[in-house]
Design goal:
The protein is of the alpha/beta class. The chain has helices at about 20-25, 50-55, 70-85, 105-110, 125-130, 140-155, 170-180, 190-205, 210-220, 235-240, 265-280, 285-295, 310-315, and strands spanning about 5-10, 30-40, 60, 90-95, 115-120, 135, 245-250, 255-260, 285, 320-325, 330-335.
Length: about 350
């Protein structure tokens, strides 16, 4: 049975354009049994919501503004949430607002053992973000919803292992856009890398492997507003592959995250290149794409540092890699060397 959630929206702080991404995102967590939105529906400010309420079966809760400001709306939403907490069998709440006034409510709901998912714009204050189990920025949801269909087609056409490679080009451009938009609220990539290293080290001390799922859940516990989409990636696996200290391995459906321990940079680079070419399958990978992925993971890569004047020559030096020349593009293809014995 799916977990049951109540969706409570503060219309004073959220635009109607976000409703579909909100509902799509919340569907990942469970079944939405309550859908309510709070505001003064006599005001023209909320007119854009009316059509969305009908199409998505959201119940509007009228709250007149008795005084200047929106404290009345906040109070109505808080009272309803507490009523639901004590009278309904809910596993969690989704609070949609960019207002820090709901920080105490989020904390109270969590104290009662309920999961709290927060959603708000990038301007949402840190206290409300930290009070939630998970916090997601609405701008990311809107962008993800807009680009979702094309991303889905691309991912379905790729091999399973190719999902564990960094995405160059558009991913880097999107990451730059998200970093500018996220501002100081975004957790730095260095912090994330060190947190994952610590998680893996702790598990190693207890003779445990570190699964990809555990990394994701523990990162969210450390940073409730952690979201790989803020850094330009749609999958946690792709994001983690960009860190030089981390290595992802797949055994069937199990994906583990390990450290590049006691290896020189040269060894890490060679292992990464061989993995990229091998995972590309029979069709291989273009040298242009391979070069972009290397630079994405090893930012200071220079082929001259490894004794070659051309990137093509360097790739040809690998015993298990054959370079096919197809006119304007060269392709690196993995070939298994048979034992001569």
């Amino acid at each position: 049975m799916e977990d049951r959630f109540a969706l409570l929206i503060d219309s004073d702080n959220v635009s109607a354009k976000y409703i579909e991404p909100i509902l799509d995102e919340l569907s990942k967590y469970g079944n939405v049994t309550y859908k309510r939105i709070y505001g003064d529906w006599t005001s023209t400010y909320n007119s854009s919501w009316k059509e969305e309420l009908l199409q998505n079966s959201i119940t509007p809760i009228q709250q007149f503004s008795y005084t200047h400001g929106k404290n009345a709306t906040d109070s109505a939403m808080i009272i309803d949430a507490m009523d639901m907490l004590y009278t309904s069998e809910l596993e969690g709440f989704c609070l949609v607002s960019s207002d820090s006034d709901f920080t105490k409510l989020a904390s109270r709901l969590r104290e009662s053992g309920r999961m709290v998912i927060g959603m708000g714009e990038s301007k949402t204050p840190v206290p409300f973000r930290k009070a939630c189990d998970i916090f997601t920025e609405l701008e990311l949801l809107l962008e993800d919803n807009t680009m979702g269909s094309s991303n889905s087609r691309n991912e379905k056409s790729a091999a399973v292992l190719s999902n564990f490679s960094g995405t160059p080009g558009n991913g880097e451009e999107k990451e730059n856009r998200n970093s500018r938009r996220g501002g100081s609220n975004a957790v730095s990539k260095n912090q994330i890398e060190e947190a994952v290293v610590k998680i893996i080290t702790e598990n190693q001390n207890n003779d445990k492997e570190t699964g990809l799922g555990e990394v994701g859940s523990r990162l969210v516990k450390l940073y409730p507003d952690f979201d790989v989409r803020r850094y330009g990636y749609s999958l946690l696996s792709k994001f983690l592959e960009t860190f030089p200290k981390l290595n992802l391995k797949q055994d069937g459906t199990q994906v583990t995250v390990t450290l590049y321990e006691d290896k020189s940079k040269k060894e890490m680079l060679e292992e990464f290149i061989l993995g990229q070419v091998q995972n590309a399958g029979k069709q291989g990978i273009s040298l242009g794409t391979l070069g972009n992925r290397i630079r994405s993971k090893f930012g200071d890569f220079k082929v001259r540092d490894y004794g070659f004047s051309q990137f093509k020559q360097y790739i040809q030096s690998f015993e298990n890699i054959y370079v096919e020349d197809e006119g304007e593009q060269n392709w690196a293809v993995y070939r298994k060397i048979k034992n001569s014995k």
